[in-house]
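In the current project phase, the collection of sequences with tokenised folds has grown. A sample record is quoted in full directly below:
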Amino acid sequence: MKIQVNARNRAYAFDATEGEKILYAGLSDAIGLPYECASGTCGTCKARLVSGEVVDGWPGAPGRKYLKGEGEFLMCQCTAKTDASIEVASFVQPIEAGVCVPAAMKGVISSAKLLTPDVIHLQVKLGQPMEFDAGQFMMVQVPGVAGFRGWSMVNHQREAESLEFIVKKKPGGGISEWLFNSPCTGVEVELFGPLGQATFYPGLLKNILCIAGGSGIAGMLSILSRAAQNDYFNQHKGDVFFGVQTLKDAFFLDEFSQLRVRCGDKLNVTIALSKEEPPASVLNDYPQLKFDTGYVHDVAGRHMQGNYQNVRAYLAGPPPMVDATIRILLQARVTSDNICYDKFS
């Protein structure tokens, strides 16, 4: 099917195959259509159908609450049944040269390891190498579970042959029930990406601030990995705040310790425990790390007071945590263009 998009600044045309999400088809053609979550929750990718017919793959998507006008639909959930003409209210630019263009691909889950009782680490072997930028995420669909989920990469290699993810268990969640209650290694999955705007490049030349809750730490580790590969912390500071409820909910502490040893004193890592005081033993077990009590955004605000000069902040985690962190950063006069995050819900 042929799709024409009329944006505020210009028109674009691209092809979409049967069953292909309109958003994914446009992005694959290097057209920078608007999106954030790409999974039906945020409403950013809404468009208006001018002519033709589309099929809604998820009529109950939470993002539909943002659809107000006649003919509006979510590009990430709808496929074209016929040739179609649509309108989007925003400016749309081509994806810049050198930026990784999203594509559909397949992979096989090659390993699955529990990090805590409700967090699992997955490695997906790709059918072919792919490029992605530090901080990006993939849309992943598993057999027998409807819809794609957005998972941030933990690792970073520009020509990656496999991708690593961490996934938090959600009671009653379709993918959670499948991942945590049945063998998943050897299973083929569908992927689309890379996606996401909260990316890091070594040419940034700013101090890095990473604030994450729970499994939101995944993309931060990708950013830190690329920074370490490029000796970024020889010249710039890095501050990482990782929030969990209790110490038993924490993971990757050994990896953070190794990063501290590799990168030196210009990289600081603080683990924020919201429901307990740090046990005395943990200070001996992880001398490279700092521990504090409180919600991660409050802990970060205390530790960073007066230290926001020349900083780029990366945020990830539950929406209330991200919103609270944004308020703290704006009050500290960090400009909005230096606050990076992707909305997953």
Observations:
- The mean pLDDT is 95.
- The two ends are 30 Å apart (CA to CA).
- The longest helix spans residues 217-229.
- The chain has seven helices and 19 strands.
